[in-house]
């Protein structure tokens, strides 16, 4: 017979309050949205929060410092967070950080380090690498004399007499509060200029798209601190299979890719590494006028954030996704989420032909440019491809997080219900809820192994009037022809096995990391198995018959 699953919901919440206007928290939750948990860390608060699809609190981390600016929940169950340390240098910016930390589910600091001196500071973002190291964005002061020698127009140096030079640093964690520097790359090793033939880096700008024009930053620019912060990297990502790094370069409205396979010495040169280019820019896109191979009106990106490679096993894996904020876009400012495919050769190098810019001419996919898709975030923001094929979009400055399906329909919406760390009240207005990044994790995410996912109340004050269901519990993962039925009873924390044909089989309880927690023989028409009281989080119920047939179910266990 065909197996038919009768869903058992662990939580069903329905509110029908009259006269209440829904303004914050979960505004929409359709069954086709990813039933998972969303992490966000508001810009003006000191806490990170994780909520379910109904806005019910799953966990919070009170860190005592504002984010600086990103936070990720990792597969190892730790949160990687950049934070604002007490400044020691002249890096006055909303984007400064100075500190990095790894924090466990219970808010204990596992590791922390401050890269914060009078001449150097971390900022914006960091990424956890598969080998356990961390790549981080840093600024380092470079002063007038060196800038002139590198080819900068002396009249275009900030009155402070220095600029914030970008440096990417890979660190290895040592003990609970120390590091080893493993590798580094600096933008000042990759300049080009056509201002002064007697200085370094002189050449024809358009002949060297692999280099950054040191005289491009304009003192009159309205970009963020552009007189000193010439590039303003605001995101970093790492692709292990390519051994490449992707950064978003806000102040020139570009994304860049550089080679990580180099040594530090090679990264300071124009040769070496897998791609033979040293630390030069392998690929750039978004504003070809920055390297004089396009007109200003051909610009594609406008203050973009959150550039990253879409992860393996997801729809559009390997392509680049970003949030194009749209600041200064011709006409009306509006934001879009975009996906592009850089042209590559068989060796994963990037194709460009003289005198053309890097392709593609247009993104492969854009959301936000059609009627009914209006949203705008002047700064911050990101987007994320989800495991069910949907896309999460975080319009950061207004504190709006929403999810769309492949047909561009909105299936989940959430308004961050906070004034800094203070909850907003349902029905009222909210501001000061800007959010740099948001990420959604499926319920079987490895990081949830063994943690308590019991939902609490919503963050906001007041009730949620829209009605909201959490569609979790036993979820079928594989179709089968067996007559065996599995039912879960959350109140008793037990499984009932219905086996009308008295088939011989075995039952396994398996964690998301592959660890076996229980094995039982199925040898009766009906059996009940009590689950261990301390099991909480995401597990799999697997049934395997003597003939090798079987199926698997996802099981979400709350605490208690």
Report on this structure.
The protein has 560 residues and is mainly β. Among the domains are: 74-312, no CATH class; 477-557, Immunoglobulin-like, CATH 2.60.40. Helix content is 2%, strand content 41%. It is built from two helices and 40 strands. Strands 2-28-27-26-25 form a five-stranded antiparallel sheet, with no helix packed on it. The chain has a five-stranded antiparallel sheet with strand order 10-11-12-13-14. It has a five-stranded antiparallel sheet with strand order 33-40-39-36-37, with no helix packed on it. Residues 1-19 have low confidence and may be disordered.
Report helical residue fraction: under 10%
Mean pLDDT: 91
How many strands appear in the DSSP assignment? 40
Radius of gyration: 26 Å
Question: End-to-end distance, in Å?
Answer: 36 Å
- Protein structure class: mainly beta
Provide a brief overview of the structure.
This protein has 560 residues and is mostly beta strands.
């Amino acid at each position: 017979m065909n197996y038919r699953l009768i869903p058992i919901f662990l939580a069903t919440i329905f509110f029908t309050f009259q006269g209440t206007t829904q303004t914050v928290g979960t505004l929409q939750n359709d069954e086709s949205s990813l039933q998972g948990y969303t992490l966000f860390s508001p810009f003006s608060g000191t806490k990170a929060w994780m909520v379910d699809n109904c806005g019910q609190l799953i966990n919070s981390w009170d860190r005592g410092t504002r984010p600086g600016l990103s936070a990720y929940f990792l597969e190892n169950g730790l949160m990687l967070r950049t934070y604002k340390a007490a400044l020691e240098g002249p890096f006055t910016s909303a984007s400064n950080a100075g500190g990095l930390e790894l924090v466990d589910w219970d808010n204990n600091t596992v590791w922390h380090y401050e890269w914060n001196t009078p001449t150097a500071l971390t900022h914006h973002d960091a990424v956890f690498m598969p080998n356990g190291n961390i790549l981080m964005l840093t600024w380092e002061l470079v002063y007038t004399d060196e800038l002139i020698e590198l080819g900068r127009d002396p009249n275009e140096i900030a009155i402070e007499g220095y600029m914030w030079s970008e440096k990417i640093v890979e660190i290895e964690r040592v003990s609970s509060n120390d590091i080893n520097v493993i590798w580094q790359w600096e933008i000042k090793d990759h300049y080009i200029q056509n201002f002064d033939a007697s200085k370094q880096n002189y050449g024809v700008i358009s002949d060297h798209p692999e280099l950054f024009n040191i005289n491009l930053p304009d003192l009159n620019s309205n970009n963020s601190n552009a007189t000193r912060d010439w590039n303003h990297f605001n995101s970093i990502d790492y692709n292990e299979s390519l051994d490449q790094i992707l950064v978003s370069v806000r102040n020139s409205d570009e994304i860049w890719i550089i080679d990580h396979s180099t040594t530090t010495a090679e990264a300071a040169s124009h040769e070496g590494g897998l791609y033979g280019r040293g630390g030069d820019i392998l690929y750039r896109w978004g504003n070809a006028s920055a390297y004089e191979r396009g007109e200003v009106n051909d610009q594609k990106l406008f203050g973009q954030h959150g550039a990253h490679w879409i992860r393996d096993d997801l729809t559009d894996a390997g392509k680049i996704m970003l949030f194009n904020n749209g600041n200064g876009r011709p006409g009306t400012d509006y934001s879009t989420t975009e996906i592009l495919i850089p042209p590559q050769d068989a060796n994963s190098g990037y194709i460009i032909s003289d005198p053309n810019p890097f392709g593609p001419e247009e993104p492969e996919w854009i959301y936000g440019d059609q009627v009914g898709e209006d949203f705008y975030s002047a700064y911050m923001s990101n987007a994320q491809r989800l495991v069910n094929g949907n896309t999460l979009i975080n319009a950061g400055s207004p504190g709006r997080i929403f999810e769309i399906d492949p047909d561009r329909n909105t299936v989940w919406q959430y308004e961050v219900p906070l004034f800094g760390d203070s909850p907003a009240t349902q029905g009222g207005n909210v501001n000061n809820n800007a959010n740099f990044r948001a990420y959604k994790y499926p319920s079987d995410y490895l990081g949830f192994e063994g943690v308590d996912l019991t939902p609490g109340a919503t963050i906001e004050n007041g009730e949620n009037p829209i009605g909201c269901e959490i569609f979790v519990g036993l979820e079928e993962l594989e179709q089968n022809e067996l007559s065996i039925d599995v039912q879960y009873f959350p109140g008793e924390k037990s499984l009932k096995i219905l086996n009308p044909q008295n088939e011989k089989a075995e039952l396994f309880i398996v964690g998301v990391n592959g660890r076996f927690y229980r094995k039982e023989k199925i040898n009766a028409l009906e059996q009940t198995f009590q689950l261990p009281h301390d099991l909480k989080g995401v597990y799999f119920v697997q049934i395997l018959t003597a003939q090798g047939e079987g199926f698997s179910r996802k099981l979400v266990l709350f605490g208690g």
